Amino acid sequence: MFKAFKEFAFRGNVIDLAVGVILGAAFSGIIKSLVDSVFMPLIGIIIGGIDVKGLSVMVGNAELQYGQFLQASIEFLLIAFALFLFVKGITSFRKKEEVVEEEAAPTTEEKLLTEIRDALVRQNESSTKN
Fold first, then answer.
1. In the predicted model, is pLDDT for residue 103 greater than 70?
2. Which interval of the chain is the signal sequence (predicted)?
3. Total-model pTM
4. What is the C-alpha separation between 45 and 54, in angstroms, rounded?
């Protein structure tokens, strides 16, 4: 059972996933700070000096704090956009690697020319021996 767990845990995909989750959590903190410290104050200034995070409305005895929801939504959109750009960059990098690997293989024409060359060399060797 330990051997099976070890094989599962140390597979490349699981380790990549774990690293991605850790980096995602750290990145989330950076985006949260960016939204809290830069974007939300700017949005507050644009809409007339209002603290967006503090926006709320009273419905009966309940206070609906839609400003916090708005701020969390903006954080989500920024994180999603940044991850989109990251994944797009990784995908284009992988495509470039695949193109380089494909170019290394000889084409059919190159294979045929190599065969013709080898046949001519063999023909010349046999004619010089006679």
1. no
2. none
3. 0.51
4. 14
SS (H, E, C) the chain: CHHHHHHHHCCHHHHHHHHHHHHHHHHHHHHHHHHHHHHHHHHHHHCCCCCHHHCCEEECCEEECHHHHHHHHHHHHHHHHHHHHHHHHHHHHHHHHHHHHHHHCCCHHHHHHHHHHHHHHHHHHHHHHC
Tokens standing for residue 94: 């992988």
Contacts of 74 (CB under 8 A, 6+ apart): 35, 39, 40, 43
CB 31 within 8 A of CB 79: yes
Residues contacting 52, CB < 8 A, separation 6+:
40, 43, 44, 67, 70, 71
Tokens 């000096």 sit on residue: 49
> Are 52 and 43 contacting, i.e. CB atoms less than 8 angstroms apart?
yes
- Structure-block tokens of residue 25: 């959590």
pLDDT(104) > 70: no
Locate tokens 């954080």: which residue? 75
> pLDDT per residue over 60-85, tens digit each?
899 999 988 988 888 888 878 877 88
